[in-house]
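pasting input
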Amino acid sequence: MGTHPEPVGKSENEASVVEDALRKSGFRWTNQRALIVQEALATHVHFTADELLDLCREKDPKVSRATVYRTLSVLEDAGFVEGLDTGDGGRRFEHVLGHDHHDHMVCLMCEKIIEFRDDELERRQELAAKRIGFSIARHSLHLYGTCKQCLREQRKK
Amino acid sequence: MGTHPEPVGKSENEASVVEDALRKSGFRWTNQRALIVQEALATHVHFTADELLDLCREKDPKVSRATVYRTLSVLEDAGFVEGLDTGDGGRRFEHVLGHDHHDHMVCLMCEKIIEFRDDELERRQELAAKRIGFSIARHSLHLYGTCKQCLREQRKK
DNA sequence: GTAGGTGCAAACCTTTTGCAGCATG
DNA sequence: CATGCTGCAAAAGGTTTGCACCTAC
């Protein structure tokens, strides 16, 4: 796997950040992990485990579902990937590398996920936690509702 | 079912609020629903569907799992119960009646769930949504981390 | 050489569904 | 007495696991 069949640009560097970190934690760097990390970093949408599996299988049809799940779990523990509940029992993931932290609005009509960020929100969360001696490792803020477009279409009827 | 073997107090009144609302929406009020609602309202913890099933079966061993799920779904739609993702793919519920809205801190070590509320947080969420034309139906804010006690025990080691 | 990782298939867990019988309104 | 609800069991997702083989270190 020493040569790259195509230029991968930014996510190539990011992948090596992941590689270094995992190696440092005593994990092995396998072809499958490289592929899974590459695909996860290259995607700019919130993907399900199964969608990631499909992406990987385009490049290597014999990657197994179990490996994708196992790798996602390692990546999540290492903080490179964040799992988010879609509110209907499902789970989606996003990579965190190079992204700023943000929260999510989930449209219940079209399932679109909108990212947003508000520093004051972040600050007040820290404050609320500090007040009761709770130490935040991560947080998830999801607003469920209806997006602009869906609201508009709803009104037409 | 006309007489009560034990005083149930507050949750009895709350149950009738639910009953009225469901009847008004065209649902039937069955023994199973009464039982499920009673147990859901009486519990002061965040319960899983299965835990609620167990509670119900203590009173009536033949309640089916399907009925609990179907009733929880009705209650959630009607706004009497709120489902919350535990971050690990699981779901827990809490009843909303008589509770003020609040958010949650989840201790990743002892699994304790701490409720908190911050009005400013609520306001800023509304604001952020308004800014992009998103209409919030509900939201969930979970802070994952370590609670005071677990932090203390950790330091001991 | 030896952990650790992989693929496969089966197991698991939670939730949903089809259907026949039952109870509510 | 008609329709909606229930129980059962089976199906459906999504995720995890046991095991034999493989491969990175």
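fyi The beta strands of chain A are 81-85, 91-95, 103-107, 113-116, 135-146.
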